[in-house]
Amino acid sequence: MCVIILNCVTLGMYQPCSDEVCTTVRCQLLEGFDHFIFAFFAIEMLIKMVAMGVWGKDTYLAEAWNRLDCFIVVAG
Q1: How many domains does the chain have?
Q2: 11-26, pLDDT tens digit by residue?
Q3: Whole-structure pTM value
Q4: Any stretches that span the bilayer, and where are they (predicted)?
């Protein structure tokens, strides 16, 4: 939950019109947080896939929320 809140805060702080070239400290810090958050969610997904299995009954992709989570991570 803390990483989700961190993601919401960093998305709220991002200014796409003024951050075309990421040279400010604020922009670089937000970019670092973005990489950390993506890695965190990707590792979480991989751990769940290893623990639960990927295909079949009662596996990671058998649950709709996990399929949505996987789509979001892959799209990111």
Answers
A1: 1
A2: 888 776 666 777 888 8
A3: 0.75
A4: 36-55
What is the number of alpha carbons within 13 Å of residue 13 lying toward its C-beta?
15
Residue 70 lies in a domain: yes
Domain range for 66 is 1-10+34-76
What is the widest separation between alpha-carbon atoms in the chain?
Answer: 49
22 assigned to some structural domain: no
Residue entry with tokens 């922009």: 27
Residue 18 within a domain: no
Going from the C-alpha of 1 to that of each of 6, 42, 56, 75, the distances in angstroms are 9, 15, 28, 21
